[in-house]
Amino acid sequence: PEGGKYRNLHGHSFRVRVSLRGERQREEEWVMDLGKLGRRLNELRECLDHSFLNDLEGLGKPTLENLCAYIWRDLAPELPSLAEVGIFRDSCFEGCVYRRD
């Protein structure tokens, strides 16, 4: 709101954790190729890093909860083993975790 503490443009640093759950694939003996996961996460980072999150379509208000849900929605179609997305703002000792039940 006008005159509010967060009214002016400001930035934060976030740390994201993505967790997978599933049976290991017999040939590879892993749930997912982490190289492939890393490339996909880098694509997402490119979209979010140094962006004005208020203008990011589909995010809504850039709260930790909304960022978790946004990242989940972005990754879930390609990652059937996606189990959890956590986002943390370590400088403020804050975090949020979104899990599939």
Describe the structure.
The protein is an alpha+beta fold. Helix content is 27%, strand content 20%. It has helices at 34-48, 64-75, and strands at 15-20, 82-89, 94-99. The protein has a three-stranded antiparallel β-sheet with strand order 1-2-3, covered by helices on one side. Strand 2 and strand 3 form a beta hairpin. It is elongated. The model has no long low-confidence stretch (mean pLDDT 89).
Rounded mean pLDDT score: 89
Distance between the termini: 36 Å
User: Order of strands across the widest beta sheet?
Assistant: 1-2-3
Number of helices: 2
Helical percent range?
25-40%
Overall spatial form:
elongated
Spell out the blueprint of helices and strands:
Elements: E1 15-20, H1 34-48, H2 64-75, E2 82-89, E3 94-99
Antiparallel strand pairs: 1-2, 2-3
Summary tags:
alpha+beta, 3 strands, 20% strand, elongated
